[in-house]
Amino acid sequence: MQYYQNGFRAGDPDLKPAAEGIRPTGADRPLPDKVDVLIAGCGPAGLCLAAQLAEHPEFTTMIVEPKPGPIEKGQADGVNVRSMEMFQAFGFGEQVKREAYWVNQSNFWMPDPENPEAIKRVGRVQDVADDLSEMPHTLMNQARIHELFLTNMRKSPTRLEPDYGIKVIDLDVDTTTEDHPVTVTLEYTEGERAGQTTTLRANYVVGADGARSNVRRAIGGKLEGDAAHQAWGVMDILANTDFPDVRMKNLIASKSEGNLLILPREGGYLFRMYVELDKLNPDERVSARNLTDTDMIAAAQRIMAPYTLDVKDVVWWSIYEIGHRLTDKFDDVPEGETASRTPRVFTAGDACHTHSRKAGQGMNVSMGDTFNLGWKLISVLKGRADASLLHSYTAERREEARRLVETDHKWARIMSAPLTPAELNGTEERRIIKHFIANGEFTAGLAVKYDPSAITSADARQDLATGQDIGKRFHSAPVVRASDAMEMQLGHVAEADGRWRLYAFAGKDADAVHRLAEWLATDSASPVVRFTRPDEDIDAVIDVRAVFQESFEEIDMGKMPALLKPTTGALGLQDHEKVFCVDHKSGQNIYDMRGIDKDQGCMIVVRPDQYIAHILPLDATDALAEFFDGILLPAKDGLGSVTKTLAEA
Length: 649
Ligand SMILES: Cc1cc2nc3c(=O)[nH]c(=O)nc-3n(C[C@H](O)[C@H](O)[C@H](O)COP(=O)(O)OP(=O)(O)OC[C@H]3O[C@@H](n4cnc5c(N)ncnc54)[C@H](O)[C@@H]3O)c2cc1C
Hints:
By secondary structure, this protein is α+β, with helices and mostly antiparallel strands. The protein folds into 3 domains: 34-73 and 141-223 and 327-399, FAD/NAD(P)-binding domain; 97-136 and 225-322 and 407-439, D-Amino Acid Oxidase, subunit A, domain 2 (D-Amino Acid Oxidase, Chain A, domain 2); 462-648, Glutaredoxin (3-Layer(aba) Sandwich), CATH 3.40.30.20. The chain has 16 helices and 27 strands. The longest helix is centred in the middle third of the chain and has 26 residues, at 391-416. The site of flavin-adenine dinucleotide (FAD) has 32 residues, from α1, β2, β9 and α7. Flavin-adenine dinucleotide binds at residues 40-46, 64-67, 74-76, 78, 142, 167-168, 208-210, 214, 234, 318, 349-351, 357, 360, 362-363, 366.
């Protein structure tokens, strides 16, 4: 972690200096007439976006929520490894690792062929395959995840707090103006003003307002899909049991009493149970059954037999039907008008896709949506990119949502399907185990692969880094920081700050990195020169890092090019953290692990949301310039500022 860049400040280094002139936000604060971004909903999607935007006082952000305050328990709990990697970029990955339950193994229990009325463990699978990610798969209460985002917002320069007790009821987009074209009608839901409405105007509105989204409705979207007519219950409980695997994740299929999923939780005592309840008739709603936590406990006890379950406290419970649905409207631009209009309204999270709870994707995919949208909005609002960049949100996330709903649909059906006689007597491999193993990458959130577009090159030299798939997230690996011999993960230099990363991996000729750095810092065609503004640090838009194959003892930091030891911040202090080496001590060589060409080296361009945008030879400066020219807008007087910063280095 780097701080004191702008001078020494005592106390919490995460607490950033407050920006001047910001609107005090929070419950019961007066509302503004205009705002740049209005976010509807304080679920994981809304808060993940708010936490990114809150870091930028150059534009105004507001987030409204009908509830009187943050939720305290319940809802989702699965944090897949991709979300954990994202949390690392937000700065709270280590905290979640410390607090959460880590899913190391998943167990499968089925009827005992010798005694089918009782269950028996039939399989054990390592939950996350080796080196799939440096981060674990964890389970933690959704409310705590919300709290971590809220803390980041509170400590950001804008000190952003949700405006609680307010909901979006409708909106209208005026396509004839660029000045705050979205008129939003809000309604107070709490206190003396409950039921009163007011309006404000926004440049952008993001509907992260859940499955019954008013924002989606206002832009003419519908959730289309099916319900599986299967009632499932979920309960978070404090209980004793003689079931031996209670501190592991378990999928339990009984002979005739249905299925059960056990998910241990943070803290060592709490666990969650998903219990299959009755099949519903095609036109029946689960609410009609009047099922309660008592029904759930009784069903769990029957499924777990002969093991016992003694429930001491039901912390939270809920009963629902599985629905797999997707919307046709991720933004407000009608099909066929994308060339003439750019989006002003977006939907994200459950507002645009719903799926079964048990694959644990809801919270993860919702945050994935707004991690994709966040940097794009920041780029446009800061004038770094044209508003047409915002079309890529729908293009990328709608395709991911479609894949999610499809895979989840299969998963839910396999989980609820009765066991075949061959599965029961163990002569045939259980479908559920096969499916679980085959879908490891998907469940981890790592199957996301964006198609070629202006922000994901179709011409990448995949052969130069065979283990870093273009369009997928940058796969971290261990390195040693050259300046202080710190062993660390290279991917952890990426923060959720809207900046691009360019990793230059040296080949046999280490000077190629020096030549690239020189070109990046001085050439008028360089994206660093073209897109960095006069008043900005040289790494404000593109953060360049280099990796060398030598050990840190062999690296001469004194001879590093100025771009790799730039002076930044109010005091012009030198940054010593841009240069890395292979971790020879551990034997985990990032070149071998990620298939990086040791002779030629390469540069890997990584988007602000950690996805790989391009892979190029170190001397492919023209192609690099062309790629960024297709995305970013030139900064005024960029050359002067960069040259000045480097001259001081
Ligand atoms: C009751 C419930 C139980 C759930 N149980 C599970 C579970 O057991 N396991 C699991 O994996 N997932 C569960 N989920 C789903 C999981 O929580 C979601 O997939 C995930 O939270 C999606 O995040 P989101 O931010 O898109 O939406 P949500 O988390 O639904 O957040 C939407 C937010 O928008 C607010 N809102 C609603 N209307 C408006 C409006 N008009 N204007 C402004 N704000 C509005 C809501 O109050 C809410 O805070 C549950 C969800 C709910 C609602």
